[in-house]
From TrEMBL, chain A:
Its main location: mitochondrion. Residues 120-160 form the F1F0-ATP synthase subunit delta C-terminal domain. InterPro entries: ATP_synth_F1_dsu/esu, ATP_synth_F1_dsu/esu_N, ATPD_C_fung, ATPsynth_dsu/esu_N. Belongs to the ATPase epsilon chain family. It comes from Friedmanniomyces endolithicus. One of its GO terms (molecular function) is proton-transporting ATP synthase activity, rotational mechanism. It is found in: Mitochondrion inner membrane. This is ATP synthase subunit delta, mitochondrial. Pfam families: ATP-synt_DE_N, ATPD_C_fung. The gene is ATP16_1.
From TrEMBL, chain B:
Coiled coil: none annotated. SUPFAM superfamilies: Epsilon subunit of mitochondrial F1F0-ATP synthase. InterPro entries: ATP_synth_F1_esu_mt, ATP_synth_F1_esu_sf_mt. This is ATP synthase subunit epsilon, mitochondrial. One of its GO terms (molecular function) is proton-transporting ATP synthase activity, rotational mechanism. Pfam families: ATP-synt_Eps. The lineage of its organism: Eukaryota, Fungi, Dikarya, Ascomycota, Pezizomycotina. Gene3D superfamilies: ATP synthase, F1 complex, epsilon subunit superfamily, mitochondrial. One of its GO terms (biological process) is proton motive force-driven mitochondrial ATP synthesis. GO terms for cellular component: mitochondrial inner membrane; proton-transporting ATP synthase complex. It comes from Friedmanniomyces endolithicus.
Length: 163, 75
């Protein structure tokens, strides 16, 4: 009966599904970064091998390559640049979020809103800046002024990126 | 790291929402209409006590009232 128990345990172990995060034989190539860039409503990159990602973190601008030390960075509203394997360079303006570098060259960026620069309208940005400046310098509540300041911070970053 | 919005009582959640709203409004008009719909939230909640449902409140209003009350207390 012992052999039956061993066989049953072996079958159970073999049938246990591998958790999706544990990589098996197909590991990330040692010189590539595996990037996942996701918004709540859209996935821009899903575990794609890239060469380098430049992010705007609160602690400063960072370039992340393969074998980067694991870290968690809060993002400023700003530009994220992805340098892909095929040599293409893509830029996205993200409204804010977090970038997590995990051991084994895995980078996950989560943001609330993100668009390529072509999707923005410089005129809409200008109009919003003047509106936000009015509110920030006005006589509204502290909440409104603080929100207007947040908007100004984002808009100035966006305006600089659009130039 | 001291953030100006935190000192004014804005929560990180609200900060993200404000930044996202601004980005959506800065888009070119065709993409903007689709994106603006994502920003709409009309969530209501009610506290239950002793099996009785309390009054139905809007989450946005309740959050704003809470933030105004706590402004300057954080830090």
């Amino acid at each position: 009966m012992n052999s039956l128990k061993v066989a049953r345990m072996a079958l159970r172990a073999a049938a246990r599904p591998q958790p999706a995060l544990r990589r098996g034989y197909a590991d990330v190539a040692p010189d590539k970064l595996r990037l996942s860039l996701a918004l709540p409503h859209q996935t821009i990159y899903k575990s794609q091998d890239v060469v380098q990602v430049n992010i705007a973190a609160e602690s400063g601008e960072m370039g992340i390559l393969a074998q980067h030390v694991p870290s968690i960075e809060q993002l400023k509203p700003g530009l994220v640049e992805v340098i892909e394997e095929a040599g293409g360079n893509k830029q996205f303006f993200l409204s804010g979020g977090f970038a997590t570098v995990q051991p084994g060259s895995v980078l996950s960026i989560n943001a609330v809103e993100g668009y390529p620069l072509e999707d923005f309208s410089a005129e809409n940005v200008r109009n919003q800046i003047s509106e936000a400046q009015k509110i920030a310098g006005g006589s509204g509540s502290e909440q409104d002024k603080a929100e207007a300041n947040i908007e100004l911070e984002v808009l100035e970053s966006l305006q600089a990126a659009l130039k | 790291m001291a953030f100006a919005w935190k000192a004014a009582g804005i929560t990180y959640n609200r900060y993200l929402a404000v930044a996202a709203r601004v980005v959506r409004r800065s888009l070119k008009d065709d993409k903007r209409l689709q994106a603006e719909r994502r920003g709409e939230m009309d969530l209501r909640f009610a506290k239950w006590e002793g099996g009785k449902q309390g009054e139905n409140k809007s989450l946005a209003d309740a959050n704003q009232a809470d933030m105004a009350a706590h402004a300057g207390q954080s830090q």
